[in-house]
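Example for tutorial group B:
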């Protein structure tokens, strides 16, 4: 059962999103998923995300057919999320090595 969905909206951030995702990947468990919604990037964002997500069934990438705005894209990540809780994260941040574990401990049982 997915308890936490890390939701990221992105657009043309190939130079940043790889670092963001790498900071998350080693922290994933069966109870945590990552959902990325791409607002129709024209750079190599899709390739960067695909490389980070390779072989991970709890990581999901969705590319929209056209740009519609960051608010709409974040709403879409939440719609696609399977978790009980959603953590909205930007595409150019990184998290500390124990961040996911800390969040999971603080979620209600």
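The residue assignment follows.
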């Amino acid at each position: 059962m997915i308890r936490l969905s890390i939701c990221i909206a992105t657009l043309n951030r190939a130079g940043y999103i790889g670092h963001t995702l790498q900071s998350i990947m080693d922290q994933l468990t069966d109870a945590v998923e990552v959902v990325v919604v791409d607002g129709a990037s024209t750079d190599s964002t899709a390739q960067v995300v695909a490389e980070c997500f390779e072989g991970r069934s709890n990581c999901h990438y969705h590319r929209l057919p056209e740009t519609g705005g960051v608010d709409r894209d974040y709403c879409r990540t939440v719609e696609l999320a399977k978790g009980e809780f959603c953590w909205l994260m930007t595409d150019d941040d990184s998290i500390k090595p124990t961040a996911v574990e800390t969040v999971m401990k603080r979620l209600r049982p």
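The helical segments are 14-25, 45-53, 70-80, 99-106. Compare this with the pattern of hydrophobic and polar residues in the output above.
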